[in-house]
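I am still getting used to backbone structure tokens and would like to learn alongside you. Label the sequence line and the structure token line clearly, so we can match residues to local backbone shapes. Would you write everything just below, so we can both look at the same thing?
***
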Amino acid sequence: MLCDVLDVSRSGYYSWLNREPSERSKANKVLSDFLKEKIDEHNGIAGYRKLWLDALANGFACNKKRVQRLLQTFGYRSRACKRKFGVVKPKLIETRAPNYLNREFEVAKPNTIWVSDITQVRCKEGWQYLCVIIDLYSRKVVSWATSYINSSELVMKSLKQAWAERRPNGSELMFHSDQGVQYRSFEVLKCLTKREVTVSMSRKGNCWDNACSESFFAQLKKEWFSNLEELSRREMTTQCRFYIDDYYNMVRRHGTLNGVSPITFESRI
């Protein structure tokens, strides 16, 4: 029945079944048996190149590829060649915007330049990430978001919140960040480009190009989190709300604002 299904003649099948192995197959069998002995001798450490040298030293006429192919047929893998496990990194968008901001942190009116960055805070369950967007005019944190995953979705969440809160004219706005993959993602760049926002990015390895965001995170950790015990992720988010919304924006006096809070400074417009 199988011969009929596979369209093979009965005589052809029995001829193949009773056929003597070819000289090449016999030679491969002898070489494979030799390689298995050498594998045991080397305790599974030797790779195909060293086993090939052993074969040559014992009179076998073969090349490295043949040895490698035979080792693959019985699933041999050197113990010295450990597989590397980890997260597969996605392909990055190679778009890197110029540093249009150029450390010009003094701004004449609101919703002209926003700066953004992401930091991480150690929590009981692991890292929790905080993304902020700051208006350079008043140093006010116009939006923020937290997540246990550092991704472009965290930036998008902050951007949507900032846009709903401030409703800026995109053509008059510059958005500055570092060159992190979150800010270079397709979703973030599409969102900004659609709104005609000018995208600016810090130079590689120059944290001072985004000094205002870095300074905010330093203050947050020194003034607030350093005085708290280790928090859960939910507690960390709650503490961020206390610091940013209730203290930093409303109460904390800022040196570059002549000693007033960001909310007070904006109310004088």
Q: What stands out?
A: The longest strand covers residues 113-123.
